[in-house]
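Researcher: I need the complex structure. Ligand is iron/sulfur cluster. Inputs:
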Amino acid sequence: MNNLSTLMQPKKATVAANKVSGVTLGIFTSPVNGDLIELVALFSGNAKTGNMIQLSVLPVDGDISETSEGRNAICGSCPLKKACYAHDQGLFAMMKAYKAGKYQPMPMDEFLAIAQYRFVRFGRFGDLSLLPYEVVKQIADVAKGFTGYTNQWRSKYFDSRFTSIFMLSTVGMKDSEEAAKRFPDARQFRVINEKAEYVNDTAKGFITCPSTNGFNCDECLLCDGQAQKVAGLSIEIRAHGIAYKTKRINKMLQKDVIATFKA
Ligand code: SF4
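Model: Output:
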């Protein structure tokens, strides 16, 4: 139930947003290759996230195939381009709607008025740290709660201020150690082999993603890089998702190829 102060504020923008499935929030330049990228908000979540607004960055002109410049612009140096769990059917539907012009522009002020009542997921697709920090920060500051991840921490384009908003996505132990060395105060969302043992020990700094206990992200919200309530704890999850992609991630983890990845 909404508290009294919430009920005493205008709900107009929320009602308007419920009538559309998604909107665009602005065009920016990718620091990776200079291509134009657009911030897109979908107003509904999925089975794992629960009821969250989902934000993506999409290439304005290019496509999103693994080796395209469009993908380079929005995913930068992410080492999981060929094993991306977010590259699924829902993404193709979103891209189709986006390219068909079905998402109309919404002024950022109007979006922020909605976001204050909603949980936000930064990163349905694309890496939101490729947007200007100030754009992301203003949304994080007003949202009722949020989750966010970045793979760009390995990149020379990375704005380290994002460590206070996003979890560092890491793949396996060596990659995780490298992230801890570069950004000792940042929290991580670490993917491990599907057969590996979970640490799940607060004293050791990693707990298992509560989705394995049946919670949705909107009930958890631990993947808020700045979450003070968990005192710097990081999250671990086994490789999951579409079978052939899980297989690719497991293969990378077995070889520990991420540790040798050069941004
Ligand atoms: S730790 Fe919580 S917020 Fe993060 S992915 Fe797992 S369920 Fe979602």
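Model: Summary of the prediction. The two ends are 46 Å apart (CA to CA).
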